Amino acid sequence: MNPETWAAHVTVAAIVERDGRFLLVEEHTDHGLRLNQPAGHLEAGETLAEAVVRETLEESAHPFTPEALVGVYMTHFERPAAAGVTYLRFTYCGSVGEAEAHRALDPDIVRTLWMSADELRACPERHRTPLVMRCIDDYLAGRRFPLDFVHTHSVGPTRSSKSGNP
Protein backbone atom coordinates (compact mmCIF):
# COMPACT_ATOMS: atom_id res chain seq x y z
CA MET A 1 0.00 0.00 0.00
CA ASN A 2 1.37 3.37 -0.98
CA PRO A 3 0.88 5.73 2.00
CA GLU A 4 0.84 8.71 -0.35
CA THR A 5 -2.29 7.47 -2.14
CA TRP A 6 -4.09 5.76 0.77
CA ALA A 7 -7.35 7.32 1.95
CA ALA A 8 -10.10 6.07 4.21
CA HIS A 9 -13.63 5.95 2.87
CA VAL A 10 -15.87 8.20 4.96
CA THR A 11 -19.37 6.82 5.49
CA VAL A 12 -22.44 7.69 7.50
CA ALA A 13 -25.19 5.52 8.96
CA ALA A 14 -28.56 6.17 10.59
CA ILE A 15 -30.01 4.38 13.59
CA VAL A 16 -33.76 4.77 13.87
CA GLU A 17 -35.71 3.03 16.61
CA ARG A 18 -39.49 2.86 16.66
CA ASP A 19 -41.43 0.73 19.16
CA GLY A 20 -38.31 -1.33 19.98
CA ARG A 21 -37.54 -2.06 16.33
CA PHE A 22 -34.79 -0.65 14.14
CA LEU A 23 -35.01 0.57 10.55
CA LEU A 24 -32.79 -1.55 8.32
CA VAL A 25 -32.23 -2.05 4.64
CA GLU A 26 -31.67 -5.33 2.86
CA GLU A 27 -29.22 -4.79 0.05
CA HIS A 28 -27.33 -6.61 -2.68
CA THR A 29 -23.60 -6.92 -1.93
CA ASP A 30 -20.70 -8.91 -3.38
CA HIS A 31 -21.50 -11.49 -0.67
CA GLY A 32 -25.24 -11.75 -1.34
CA LEU A 33 -28.16 -10.06 0.41
CA ARG A 34 -27.10 -8.32 3.61
CA LEU A 35 -28.67 -6.17 6.33
CA ASN A 36 -27.42 -2.71 7.19
CA GLN A 37 -28.59 0.54 8.63
CA PRO A 38 -29.38 3.12 5.94
CA ALA A 39 -25.81 4.15 5.16
CA GLY A 40 -23.51 5.41 2.47
CA HIS A 41 -20.59 7.59 1.49
CA LEU A 42 -19.99 11.23 2.27
CA GLU A 43 -20.08 13.22 -0.97
CA ALA A 44 -18.03 16.28 -1.84
CA GLY A 45 -19.42 19.53 -0.51
CA GLU A 46 -21.78 18.09 2.12
CA THR A 47 -21.55 17.88 5.89
CA LEU A 48 -21.78 14.55 7.68
CA ALA A 49 -25.27 15.44 8.92
CA GLU A 50 -26.38 16.30 5.38
CA ALA A 51 -24.93 13.01 4.14
CA VAL A 52 -26.84 10.88 6.67
CA VAL A 53 -30.10 12.69 5.85
CA ARG A 54 -29.54 12.14 2.11
CA GLU A 55 -28.46 8.51 2.43
CA THR A 56 -31.39 7.60 4.69
CA LEU A 57 -33.85 9.13 2.24
CA GLU A 58 -32.19 7.45 -0.77
CA GLU A 59 -32.03 4.01 0.85
CA SER A 60 -35.27 3.92 2.86
CA ALA A 61 -37.52 6.66 1.39
CA HIS A 62 -37.87 8.03 4.94
CA PRO A 63 -36.91 11.65 5.65
CA PHE A 64 -34.42 11.50 8.56
CA THR A 65 -33.80 14.04 11.31
CA PRO A 66 -30.50 13.44 13.10
CA GLU A 67 -30.67 13.99 16.87
CA ALA A 68 -27.24 12.83 18.11
CA LEU A 69 -24.00 11.20 17.05
CA VAL A 70 -23.77 7.66 18.45
CA GLY A 71 -20.14 7.08 17.55
CA VAL A 72 -17.30 7.08 15.08
CA TYR A 73 -16.04 3.67 13.95
CA MET A 74 -13.06 2.58 11.91
CA THR A 75 -12.79 -0.81 10.25
CA HIS A 76 -10.48 -2.33 7.68
CA PHE A 77 -11.38 -5.08 5.23
CA GLU A 78 -8.68 -7.06 3.49
CA ARG A 79 -9.27 -7.78 -0.17
CA PRO A 80 -7.57 -10.58 -2.12
CA ALA A 81 -4.77 -9.30 -4.34
CA ALA A 82 -5.40 -5.73 -3.16
CA ALA A 83 -4.45 -3.42 -0.33
CA GLY A 84 -7.88 -3.66 1.28
CA VAL A 85 -10.12 -0.82 2.24
CA THR A 86 -10.58 1.22 5.42
CA TYR A 87 -13.89 2.80 6.36
CA LEU A 88 -14.46 5.60 8.83
CA ARG A 89 -18.16 5.48 9.79
CA PHE A 90 -20.08 8.26 11.55
CA THR A 91 -23.29 6.81 12.99
CA TYR A 92 -26.17 9.11 13.92
CA CYS A 93 -29.44 8.36 15.66
CA GLY A 94 -32.64 10.21 15.03
CA SER A 95 -36.21 9.99 13.86
CA VAL A 96 -37.88 9.51 10.52
CA GLY A 97 -41.07 10.72 8.94
CA GLU A 98 -43.40 8.52 6.95
CA ALA A 99 -41.88 6.88 3.89
CA GLU A 100 -42.39 8.75 0.64
CA ALA A 101 -44.60 6.19 -1.12
CA HIS A 102 -43.49 6.82 -4.71
CA ARG A 103 -39.79 7.34 -4.03
CA ALA A 104 -37.53 4.78 -5.70
CA LEU A 105 -34.87 3.26 -3.45
CA ASP A 106 -31.19 3.07 -4.43
CA PRO A 107 -30.67 0.29 -7.00
CA ASP A 108 -28.90 -2.10 -4.59
CA ILE A 109 -31.63 -1.83 -1.94
CA VAL A 110 -34.15 -4.68 -2.06
CA ARG A 111 -36.40 -3.49 0.77
CA THR A 112 -36.59 -1.78 4.12
CA LEU A 113 -37.58 -3.63 7.26
CA TRP A 114 -37.94 -3.12 10.99
CA MET A 115 -36.20 -5.60 13.30
CA SER A 116 -35.68 -5.83 17.04
CA ALA A 117 -32.14 -5.93 18.43
CA ASP A 118 -32.68 -9.59 19.39
CA GLU A 119 -33.82 -10.49 15.86
CA LEU A 120 -30.78 -8.74 14.43
CA ARG A 121 -28.46 -10.34 17.00
CA ALA A 122 -29.77 -13.77 15.93
CA CYS A 123 -28.52 -13.43 12.33
CA PRO A 124 -24.97 -11.97 12.33
CA GLU A 125 -24.18 -13.80 9.09
CA ARG A 126 -26.67 -11.51 7.35
CA HIS A 127 -25.04 -8.26 8.59
CA ARG A 128 -23.18 -6.18 6.02
CA THR A 129 -20.43 -5.60 8.59
CA PRO A 130 -19.89 -6.24 12.30
CA LEU A 131 -20.55 -2.50 12.75
CA VAL A 132 -24.29 -3.07 12.21
CA MET A 133 -24.70 -4.69 15.62
CA ARG A 134 -21.95 -2.70 17.32
CA CYS A 135 -23.68 0.58 16.47
CA ILE A 136 -27.04 -0.67 17.76
CA ASP A 137 -25.41 -1.96 20.95
CA ASP A 138 -23.77 1.44 21.49
CA TYR A 139 -27.11 3.15 20.86
CA LEU A 140 -28.86 0.83 23.35
CA ALA A 141 -26.09 1.55 25.89
CA GLY A 142 -27.05 5.24 25.66
CA ARG A 143 -24.00 6.55 23.81
CA ARG A 144 -24.87 9.98 22.47
CA PHE A 145 -22.82 12.98 21.47
CA PRO A 146 -24.38 16.32 20.54
CA LEU A 147 -24.60 17.11 16.84
CA ASP A 148 -22.14 19.97 17.30
CA PHE A 149 -19.51 17.41 18.44
CA VAL A 150 -18.58 17.27 14.74
CA HIS A 151 -17.55 20.67 13.48
CA THR A 152 -17.58 21.45 9.77
CA HIS A 153 -15.33 24.30 8.76
CA SER A 154 -16.07 25.62 5.33
CA VAL A 155 -14.02 28.18 3.51
CA GLY A 156 -16.29 30.40 1.48
CA PRO A 157 -15.47 33.03 -1.10
CA THR A 158 -15.81 35.82 1.51
CA ARG A 159 -13.03 34.49 3.78
CA SER A 160 -10.30 37.03 4.26
CA SER A 161 -7.03 36.03 2.64
CA LYS A 162 -5.19 38.14 5.23
CA SER A 163 -6.09 35.88 8.12
CA GLY A 164 -3.41 33.25 7.66
CA ASN A 165 -5.15 31.00 10.19
CA PRO A 166 -6.22 27.55 9.07
UniProtKB/TrEMBL annotation:
One of its GO terms (molecular function) is thiamine diphosphate phosphatase activity. PROSITE patterns: NUDIX (PS51462). Pfam families: NUDIX. It comes from the Bacteria. InterPro entries: NUDIX_hydrolase-like_dom_sf (IPR015797), NUDIX_hydrolase_dom (IPR000086), NudJ (IPR033713). Residues 7-137 form the Nudix hydrolase domain. Its cofactor is Mg(2+). It is an enzyme of class 3 (hydrolase). Its EC number is 3.6.1.-. Keywords: Hydrolase, Magnesium. Monomer. Belongs to the Nudix hydrolase family. NudJ subfamily. This is Phosphatase NudJ. It comes from Paraburkholderia phenazinium. The lineage of its organism: Bacteria, Pseudomonadati, Pseudomonadota, Betaproteobacteria, Burkholderiales.
